[in-house]
């Protein structure tokens, strides 16, 4: 009986030792995995979006302590806004002036490049029927307001003939400008439809309203 008790005690101790070693190995493996997956911190909390924006804008002024100080600060902010608005207006005016003068930096993308400049000069140097397109549209609008049917009929017929003549002139002018552009700029990729449409739009505008302003006078030779 005594030998059986001693054998049981030894067996339990051995089992406890084996369990303890296994637990230690599992805990060690978990610690290693945790260390590998853990990313070291930056040492400081991540700033919030509002704090980051305030930091970029600079320090925030303390609230006014008196009504007079609040009024004075409001007037100062109003003057600053006026100065900023005046500066922006001045910049827009200068940009407008440079664009009207034909500065490539301030032109719209559709008007940039030596090809477009040559088309504008060629159109501006000629007198054509397309320049009457806008006045003709106004004439049609006025004629529709006249109650006399005869006036409306005559005006409609005249405008129709003018439109046909303008279309014919636009097609012929577009083909002629396309040939000249290809001769002058052989290395450029010239699409006839794009050149013709750009020339049509330029020619159909009133001369004083063209953007950029014409650089050549009517009748001046453009090669």
Name the shape in a single word. Answer: elongated
Task: Sketch the major β-sheet.
Answer: none
Rg is: 42 Å
Helix content: 55-70%
Percentage of residues in DSSP E strands:
under 5%
- Helix-strand pattern: HHHHHHH
Number of strands: 0
Overall mean pLDDT: 76
Uncertain runs are 1-40
Q: Distance between termini?
A: 127 Å
Structural class call reads mainly alpha
Q: What is the count of helical runs?
A: 7
Give descriptors for this structure.
mainly alpha; about 220 residues; about 70% helix; elongated; disordered N terminus; 7 helices
Overview of this structure, please?
There is one protein chain. The protein has 223 residues and is mainly α. Among the domains are: 69-100; 109-209. The chain is 68% helix and 0% strand. The protein is built from seven helices and no strands. The radius of gyration is 42 Å and the shape is elongated. Residues 1-40 have low confidence and may be disordered.
Entry summary:
This protein is mostly helical and 223 residues long. Among the domains are: 69-100; 109-209. 68% of the residues lie in helices and 0% in strands.
